[in-house]
Amino acid sequence: MTTPTVQKPALKLSTAGLTKPGVVVLQTLFISFFSLIELVFRHGVGILTGLAICFATFGGNRLGRKGTAYVAVVTPPLAFAGFIAIAIVAIDGLHPSRVGLDFIASLAGTAPYLIVSALYGWYVFFDAKKKKR
Q1: Burial code of 58-94, b = ≥16 C-beta within 10 A, e = fewer?
Q2: 64 pairs with which residues across the strands?
Q3: Smaller CB count within 10 Å for the chain: N or C?
Q4: Rg of the Cα trace of the chain?
Q5: Is 5 a domain residue?
Q6: Considering the domain boundaries, does residue 14 fall inside one?
């Protein structure tokens, strides 16, 4: 004899997508992970970190809820700069001239990727703002 199985009701999410703090955490961890890998193996940042910044911006816009475009644009450069500043101090120690030089070199190495991802992100943000009106 078979007994009827009771099915549990499906979980109902209010909306799909990441909230603003979720986008910040996802982008920060993604960029930090790839920057750390590149710092360990290449002793500097470059194309891998740059592509991670571009993918983080794109992913933040695609995976975020409605209204998270601003956070998805602003977070990647800040997350990258914050992580690089901490990592360089941890690697080089508190030598101001060396830390400053390495920090500027890291920003310069990823500048094209930062610019392209910022242009894309701001386009998405202003386009969504225009469509909202």
Answers
A1: bbbbebbeeebbbbbbbbbbebbeebbeebbeeeeee
A2: 18
A3: N
A4: 20
A5: no
A6: no
Residue 112 lies in a domain: yes
Neighbours of 50 (CB within 10 A): 22
User: Which pLDDT tens digits describe the chain residue by residue (133 residues)?
Assistant: 566 677 766 655 567 888 889 999 999 999 999 999 998 899 889 899 999 999 999 999 998 888 888 999 999 999 999 999 999 999 888 888 888 898 999 999 999 999 999 999 999 999 988 888 8
Could you tell me if residue 117 is inside a domain? yes
For residue 19, give every residue at least 6 positions away whose Cβ sits within 8 Å of its Cβ, in sequence order, or none: 64, 65, 68
How many structural domains are present in the chain?
Answer: 1
CB within 8 Å of 98: residues ≥ 6 apart: 92
Range of the domain at 127: 20-132
pTM: 0.82
AA identity, residue 18: L
